[in-house]
Design goal:
Elements (H helix, E strand, L loop, with lengths): L11 E3 L6 E3 L5 E4 L5 E3 L9 H9 L2 E3 L10 E3 L1 H4 L4 E6 L6 H13 L9 E4 L2 H16 L17 E6 L7 E7 L2 H4 L14 E6 L1 H4 L6 H7 L9 H9 L8 E9 L9 H7 L9 H18 L6 H5 E8 L22 H10 L14
Parallel strand pairs: 7-10, 7-11, 11-12, 12-13
Antiparallel strand pairs: 1-2, 3-4, 3-5, 5-6, 8-9, 9-10
Helix pairs in contact: 3-4
Length: 365
């Protein structure tokens, strides 16, 4: 992890796209013009005025050296000028609810829900973050059903934040990848970034995982069916991550039973889905929730749905609902009421040393 005194350019930062390690270089700074094309920033025109230079860099992009011969790609400059980046990938089938879960997470962060946990979050890149809010968060909060993530030939992160504890240390860039389930099941270059991801959020779809009779009507309406073989994207992703000869994946992981509002009357689910998120999660509380989720999934869904827990050295399990209710006629006419969507993210932060007061060595074991 970088020290507070370390200057930009003193270390190499891993590009999450091509896996090159690149050093910050002011000559590689670009901005988007009116035609949305990247053009050189030309930082020299700001002279030696530190305020103007810093402001220009905050909204600039850094071009990657790209030795992998991919098409040109760029990262927000603050990705290089702050603390050690943390990359988080959401994993699950196309109908698991990953996009809604991430939008609800970012929405909770935007309204200041991290403050009570001793964390502050600001956009990694203001314009990109505003676009994500407009296209995802605000639409969901207005009751719109979000479209599934489309397949792509190049995996870009959906949104990025700068997250810190408010002390003297530089905040850390946190970026979120939300790929389609079809892409996650591929093994080509589009999923190469998985080899360098720091943390995973595995999203379980209860409609596929849980053969509970009272879910049959929803399955029939949405044309889904149960599958005791689990989510294929889980296995594909876990097999793609290097283990360096060890039996387990040495990455932070959280398993989230999404759409838990569908099973909210189950005692184990009700206990956690109604619990407030205002209290800072302790290793003990996370173990208790993980125990309940594990037992519930193991009993009703089977071991295949617990593959991330079996394969990852450190993993927590959670119940959460991105919307608080079912969609109706392509939307949420009663509005959305996220439930426990921050808990998986806080668990990831704790395991990665980003949550103040948490013992990063105890969480997820």
């Amino acid at each position: 992890m970088s020290t507070p005194e370390e200057e930009p350019g003193a270390r190499r930062v891993l590009c999450p796209y091509c896996l090159d390690k690149i050093r910050y270089d002011e000559k590689q700074l670009f901005v988007r013009n009116d035609e949305n094309k990247f053009v050189p920033l030309g930082l020299e025109k700001e002279g030696t005025n530190k305020l103007r230079r810093d402001d220009a860099v905050r909204e600039a992009f850094h071009k990657c050296g790209n030795s992998a011969k991919m098409h040109d790609h760029y990262l927000p400059a603050p990705y290089f000028t702050n603390g050690e980046p943390l990359t988080v990938a959401l994993v699950g089938s196309s109908r698991a609810g990953k996009t809604h879960l991430l939008a609800s997470m970012i929405g909770e962060v935007e309204r200041g829900a991290l403050d009570v946990h001793g964390l502050k979050a600001t956009p990694l890149h203001t314009e990109s973050h505003r676009s994500y809010l407009d296209q995802r968060v605000l639409k969901l909060r207005a009751g719109e059903m979000l479209a599934h993530t489309e397949q792509t030939d190049f995996a870009e992160f959906a949104d990025g934040l700068l997250v810190g504890g408010g002390g003297t240390a530089r905040p850390r860039p946190v970026v979120f990848f939300d790929l389609s389930g079809e892409d996650l099941e591929r093994t080509g270059r589009v999923t190469r970034f998985l080899a360098a991801v720091d943390a995973f959020l595995f999203v379980v779809d209860p409609l596929r995982a849980l053969p509970l009779p009272y879910l049959d009507a929803v399955r029939e309406r949405t044309k889904q069916r149960t599958d005791d073989l689990g989510d294929r994207s889980f296995g594909t992703v876990l097999d793609r991550v290097p283990r360096d000869g060890r039996p387990y994946v040495d990455k932070a992981a959280a398993v989230v039973v999404g759409k838990s509002d569908l099973i909210r009357f189950e005692p184990a689910v009700a206990r956690w889905l109604t619990a407030p998120e205002s209290a800072r999660p302790t290793a003990r509380a996370l173990r208790e929730e993980s125990r309940d989720v594990y037992a519930f999934l193991r009993h009703h869904g089977g071991p295949a749905w617990l593959k991330p827990f079996s394969d990852c050295a450190r993993c927590t399990l959670h119940f959460a609902s991105a919307t608080g209710g079912q969609e109706d006629a392509g939307g949420f006419p009663q509005g959305v009421r996220p439930r426990r969507v921050l808990s998986p993210l806080l668990s990831i932060f704790a395991m990665c040393g980003l949550l103040p007061g948490a013992d990063s060595q105890e969480v997820g074991l």
